[in-house]
Specification:
The structure holds 2 protein chains of 2 kinds. Chain A is mostly helical. Chain A contains 13 helices and no strands. The chains are: A mainly alpha, B mainly alpha. The complex binds fe (ii) ion (2 copies) and zinc ion.
């Protein structure tokens, strides 16, 4: 049976799903809205998890943060799966060209030995940091509440795996695919005093229970400081030492951090604006973790950039925090 | 730099496995605390074979290409009123069943794989699970988008999420996944990664997707094709996990066998809804449930278990009962929905004469003998204006939560009842399989949120059934439920098609 429709399209019976209509009114919805709001199960869970019998499968008590509506955490990027992979595919295309160019032109050979050594010692260990960030964001995705925030945490977690892989590829470009640079960087990560503070910090985040606190420790505090220190300040400093080609390999991370920060800032702002209780809790967590992170990063900042670099990174973090309505 | 170059396997190792490290400052078991309580012994995570070697950059690239094509078709489908191309408006009820019963399981798969993707101590396994988690989020979201257009033109889809958490028959799929997610991480992987994704998924997706293809549903078909390459990865992960567990330690074999017994039984019960969809809800048939079961379970599954025999794994318990059930369950299920059609979120109907003949031909040993006479009676009653609806609420199985609709397989006129007493309380089951599962873990299954019990306890509003449907389930009573004949869906369809 073939149908030919010559007239205008049919009048729909309704514009969208009922839960979307209750939130946004009776009008056509966006793909982000339909993919996000009220998709997750809320009630009538059948069995308590054997691995955490005091709580339900999805349970708001897994964090001290309280929200009247967990779907208040709208992602300003409006990432649902399709929008997310398309945005990242564009970024990876640029990265792929950069990495290919770097390799084809033999830019690794051009990089001064000293600059190379700096990259191996100060930047390559970040692949382990990214790995922890992957786990920490998966944690929030698994135990958080409401698709709006849990999907964004999943996207962030996968981004971090991607970045860990890009950082690793920098090592492979530098050592001509032998893996030697990566094993050298790994030994710095494991035993060089330079990195032990950061490693200690991250191991601590991996045993921290409250998923929102983990988000603060990782995505807000540590990322803010490290991305500023390494992908901005270290990058700039390397450029002065004839290592500017590295910038082609870290562009992805810079662009990514801007993109992710829009979301992280929105989460912070929403949580803080919800109640004084939330705001105080956030400030307490941030103060605690910021202190730990500054201690952990002091050697790295000094070695990778210079005295005072950490202060610059700290100021950038504090500016974000005050924009989010914290520490007023 | 003349040192040796890495091969692909080593390179992938550096891009994933090598990212993790041994802890110095915290107890690593506290970071991965759920690995031991199930009695599974992992001696060496490094023996894990990566089921696929996909880095994130490649993942983004391939998946974005797929999404671009998929959404172009969704857009065209909506612009061209693609819903008018379906074979018959009855078909859309299969879509309703899918969105309310199956898509929320994709969401639970996302949650479950995020959980194990965080919890496994081995980074190779974690990364594979994380990618599956992301894929499963893709599946639920693309299904919502594919069906969004149907929601604009047909009843019964608009409260899919609210209904999934409450409606009596939807607790069957919901509890299935809740059970897997509330289990330990290894049981979850045997339940979902292996039993479901590797073996049973073909019996869920092939019928729905080919059903869509045979019935002119471009949106669902396109989604199905697009998800195929994801599923291929999920299947290799499912196979790797079982091989890995069986190879890690011989003590794992009986534990894994116990889970296989449980999850194949639970899976075959869950697939009851697919069986009735195939045999009764598709206006253009693909194949009978019985045929699908023979191809995808008996042949494919049989070969698989032959392969696993070298590890000491045997066919799932009650495989012999399951084999007999293929002749019956679709008929018993659709009859139950037909007679409870006032309480279902989709329409039900009597098969047409042609369809009854098809069923007779496909089920020569059972249909005419046991089931056709019921439909002939229903037809007579309907002709007299007495379309039959039952008034009572069904008793549900404590384990699978399906109403007691299954018969003894050796006597299809006798409803099967099993029961047992636990802590002074009597519990009821549809089968020996479900009773066994309960007795293995009674503390878990006494918790079941049984929709009918909940109604009787007054937890779902009421007092009347209609109050519950309207207020607690948020069904649009008189539009979403009841017979296809005379439904708003049917009236609109006729108007669109210009038939009286
Ligand atoms: Fe899926
Ligand atoms: Fe899957
Ligand atoms: Zn049962």
């Amino acid at each position: 049976m073939t149908i030919e429709i010559k007239t205008a399209t049919l009048e729909p019976v309704r514009n969208t799903f009922a839960h979307i209509e209750r939130r946004f009114g009776d009008k056509p919805a966006t793909r982000y809205q339909e993919a996000t709001y009220d998709v997750q199960s809320e009630v009538n869970f059948h069995y308590r998890p054997l691995w955490q019998p005091e709580l339900e499968l999805t349970d708001t008590r897994r964090t001290a943060i309280k929200m009247a509506d967990w779907y208040a955490f709208r992602d300003p990027r409006q990432f649902y799966y399709g929008a997310y992979v398309q945005a990242r595919a564009k970024m990876q295309e640029v990265a792929e060209n950069n990495y290919a160019f770097f390799e084809k032109r033999g830019l690794a050979e051009r990089m001064p030995e000293e600059a190379k050594q700096k990259v191996i010692r100060c930047l390559l260990p970040l692949r382990h940091v990214e790995h922890a960030a992957n786990l920490n964001n998966m944690y929030g995705s698994a135990y958080g509440n409401g698709t709006a925030i849990t999907q964004a945490l999943l996207f962030d977690g996968m981004d971090r795996l991607g970045i860990a892989q890009y950082v690793s590829r920098i090592g492979l470009l530098l050592d001509g695919n032998t893996g030697d640079a990566l094993s050298e960087a790994r030994s710095y990560w494991m035993s060089d005093p330079l990195w032990q503070g950061v490693r200690r910090y991250l191991e601590k985040t991996l045993v921290t229970e409250d998923w929102f606190e983990v988000f603060i420790a990782q995505d807000v505090v540590l990322d803010s400081l490290i991305y500023n220190l390494i992908y901005e300040q270290f990058d700039a400093k390397l450029a002065q030492q004839d290592g500017q080609d590295l910038g082609m390999l870290t562009e992805f991370m810079q662009v990514w951090f801007k993109d992710a920060s829009r979301w992280v800032d929105a989460v912070l702002k929403t949580a803080a604006a919800e109640s004084d209780e939330n705001r105080l809790q956030l400030e307490q967590w941030i103060s605690h973790w910021r202190g730990q992170a500054e201690e952990a990063l002091s050697l790295v900042a000094h070695e990778a950039v210079e005295e005072g670099a950490l202060q610059v990174a700290r100021e950038a973090l504090d500016k974000r925090l005050s924009k989010a309505g914290l520490f007023k | 730099m003349a040192a040796k170059k890495l091969n692909i396997k080593e390179k992938y190792r550096l891009l994933t496995r090598d990212l993790d490290w041994e802890f110095s400052y915290e107890d690593r078991n506290k970071a991965f605390p759920f690995e031991e309580f199930e009695g599974i012994k992992i001696t060496d995570w490094s023996k894990w074979e990566d089921p696929f070697r996909l880095t994130m950059d490649a993942y983004w690239k391939y998946q974005a290409e797929k999404e671009k094509k998929l959404y172009a078709i969704f857009d065209a489908f909506a612009q061209n009123d693609g819903h008018l191309n379906v074979s018959d408006p009855r078909y859309v009820n299969a879509v309703k069943l899918f969105l309310t019963g199956v898509s929320p399981l994709e969401y639970q798969a996302y949650q479950g794989f995020a959980h194990v993707g965080r919890q496994f101590g081995g980074v190779g396994a974690r990364v594979a699970c994380q990618m599956q988690s992301l894929d499963e989020l893709r599946h639920v979201q693309t299904q919502i988008h594919a069906m969004s257009h149907y929601n604009k033109f047909f009843d019964g889809l608009q409260e899919y999420s609210h209904m999934h958490d409450r409606v009596w028959y939807l607790s069957v799929p919901k509890s299935f996944f809740n059970d897997a997610r509330s289990a330990g991480p290894f049981e979850f992987m045997i339940a979902i990664g292996f039993s479901f994704e590797y073996v049973l998924t073909n019996l869920l997706f092939v019928p729905f997707m080919s059903g869509a293809a045979h019935n002119g549903d471009m949106a669902t078909v396109t989604f199905g094709f697009s998800a195929q390459s994801d599923e291929a990865r999920h299947m290799t992960l499912g196979l790797e996990i079982i091989k890995f567990l069986l190879e890690q330690h011989e003590d794992n074999v009986p534990v894994v066998q116990k889970w296989i017994d449980k999850w194949f039984w639970r899976g075959s019960r869950l697939l009851t809804i697919v069986s009735m969809m195939m045999d009764y809800m598709l206006p253009n048939k693909v194949m009978s449930w019985k045929e699908a079961w023979e191809v995808y379970f008996e042949e494919a599954g049989g070969a698989l278990f032959k392969d696993l025999a070298r590890y000491g794994i045997r066919m799932p318990k009650y495989a012999d009962v399951i084999e007999k059930e293929k002749e019956h369950i679709s008929h018993q299920a659709w009859w139950t929905f037909y007679t409870h059609g006032h309480a279902a979120g989709f329409h039900t109907w009597i098969p047409t004469d042609e369809e009854l003949d098809w069923l007779s031909a496909k089920y020569p040993d059972t249909f005419d003998k046991y089931y056709r006479p019921r439909w002939e009676l229903a037809k007579e009653m309907e002709a007299k204006g007495e379309r039959f609806y039952t008034s009572g609420l069904p008793q549900l199985c404590q384990t699978c939560q399906i109403p007691m609709l299954f018969t003894e397989m050796d006597d299809p006129t006798q409803i099967a009842y099993r029961d047992c007493v636990h802590n002074g309380e009597r519990y009821h089951f549809c089968s020996d399989g479900c009773k066994d599962i309960f007795e293995e873990e009674p503390e878990k299954f006494v918790q079941s949120w049984l929709p009918v019990h909940q109604i009787f306890q007054g937890n779902c509003g009421g007092p009347g059934v209609e109050d519950i449907l309207r207020d607690y389930y948020r069904m649009n009573v008189g539009a979403d439920n009841m017979d296809m004949k005379g439904s708003p869906d049917e009236l609109r369809w006729k108007k669109w098609k210009g038939v009286a």
